[in-house]
Amino acid sequence: MAAIGNVGYNYLGASGLKVSNICLGTMTFGTCKGSFPVFECNTQLDEKQSHEVLDKYVQLGGNFVDTANVYSKGKSEEIIGSWLQKQERDRIIIATKCRAQMDASDQNSCGLSRRHIVQSVEESMFRLKTNYIDLFQAHAWDNGTPIEETMRTFDDLVRCGKIRYYGFSNVCGWQLQKIVEFAKYNRINQPISLQQQYSLLCRQSEWEEFMVCKNEGLGVLSWGALKSGFLSGKFKRGEKPSKTQSRVGFYNADENVAKQVGLAVVWSDYNENDAYWNLIDKMGKIAAAHGKSIPQVAIRWLLQQDVVASVIIGATSIKQLEDNMGASAGWELSKEEMSALDAASPRMSYYPYDFLWRLNGPDRYNQFNRSIKL
Ligand SMILES: NC(=O)c1ccc[n+]([C@@H]2O[C@H](COP(=O)([O-])OP(=O)(O)OC[C@H]3O[C@@H](n4cnc5c(N)ncnc54)[C@H](OP(=O)(O)O)[C@@H]3O)[C@@H](O)[C@H]2O)c1
Questions:
Q1: From ligand 1's centre to the CA of 237, what distance in Å?
Q2: Helix (H, G, I), strand (E, B), or coil: what is residue 155?
Q3: How high is the pLDDT of residue 264?
Q4: Is pLDDT at 108 greater than 80 in this prediction?
Q5: Which domains are present in the chain?
Q6: Minimal CA–CA distance to 203: which of 220, 182, 188?
Q7: Which residues line ligand 1 (CB under 6 A)?
Q8: What are the NADP-dependent oxidoreductase domain coordinates in residue numbering (predicted)?
Q9: pLDDT score of 256
């Protein structure tokens, strides 16, 4: 990893693009009622606050901003667009996505069809006030569209210069391998990244998707590093967080919201799970030994996973931003601390992965077998 000041930079997968190892997530920019509950949360930022966060992020050395058409129904992109106009456009790497329904009255305003992808790219460029997008991502797999149609569209968009690179998000192992094989055997531009939920409390992608990334040269952009803020250390065992002061409190105050959001995004019965609190205690001890914070330990643990190119952080204040950026470079968790965190992080083992991993120990490591990278 190369570092400039206190920020590390990595290549994004097997591409020549360099991104800061902390990417600024902008799901917290803008508010919107009636789409997804997260955009109604009290801690969402208005335009002025969002611009302050963006300014500070760039000042601290970041160059990589992640958004999506669906974030506050286009408002996040608009807020970035009004800020981007005042920047040197070429110094910022902009990533956005499409897949979610944008207009309930229009059957074609969702998915990964050629029609919707091309329209989304045009609309995102308009909101972002730019004539190209650096990284365009499929927000999730779409069962309704043949993957061939999606892949050809991404390739065409790269060739005509509207997008520089493309990637996927929220897919499972067989889907990702199919994506990669299609690009490889049709000799079209390859995806360079996978944006996936990944944290000390969400490690399922280690079994399949990250193996594909390692073997095929995709960089992981992890989201949910703090599990919506739960892994920040600011909540106390047995105390219900206030509904208005944090996203975790907002999700958990109302059963309907928690149900709608689902466990994919937030841990909803957090105060009953000892393993989670024991993990936070362990993170607290490691943080104290380094004079760092719990969020910094959570992010640093991710940065030390070889498959991760950049950790997408969320921040609802400058203080949180500075805290999270402090994980980027200049210090490391030791081997022993990484192992202690691994041990404290609750992991399910599933057949056949547990079985295969036991059979394929160090004695089956073959340095000449280039097709398998563990
Ligand atoms: N591809 C996808 O499907 C997908 C899904 C989700 C997110 N994302 C991307 O990933 C980004 C980050 O995701 P996320 O927001 O779920 O990340 P996260 O790191 O799990 O949670 C971020 C939230 O935690 C709290 N927080 C952040 N830093 C803190 C600190 N230092 N101390 C205390 N609290 C802190 C803030 O909420 P409060 O202030 O409200 O507590 C913040 O909004 C998003 O903005 C988006 O760009 C992608």
A1: 21
A2: helix
A3: 43
A4: yes
A5: 7-364 (3.20.20.100)
A6: 220
A7: 25-28, 43, 66, 169-170, 195, 223-229, 232, 234, 246-248, 295, 312-316, 320, 323-324
A8: 21-344
A9: 67
Amino acid (1-letter code) at residue 234: K
Beta-sheet pairing, 18-20 with 7-11: antiparallel
Question: What pLDDT is recorded for position 268?
Answer: 54
Asked about 71 being catalytic, the answer comes back as yes
316 Cα nearest atom in ligand 1: 39
Q: How far is the CA of 151 from the centre of ligand 1 (A)?
A: 29
244 vs 66: which has the higher pLDDT: 66
Which of 137-146, 173-182, 230-239, 263-272 is predicted least confidently? 263-272
Query: Which one is predicted more confidently, 238 or 4?
Result: 238
Catalytic entry in 57, 71, 166, 270: 71
Measured in angstroms, how far is the CA atom of residue 313 from the centroid of ligand 1?
Answer: 6
Residue nearest to atom 31 of ligand 1 (CA): 320
- Of the pLDDT bands very low, low, confident and very high (cuts 50, 70, 90), residue 5 is low
pLDDT, tens digit, 9 for 90 and up, residues 260-288: 665 444 555 566 788 999 999 999 999 99
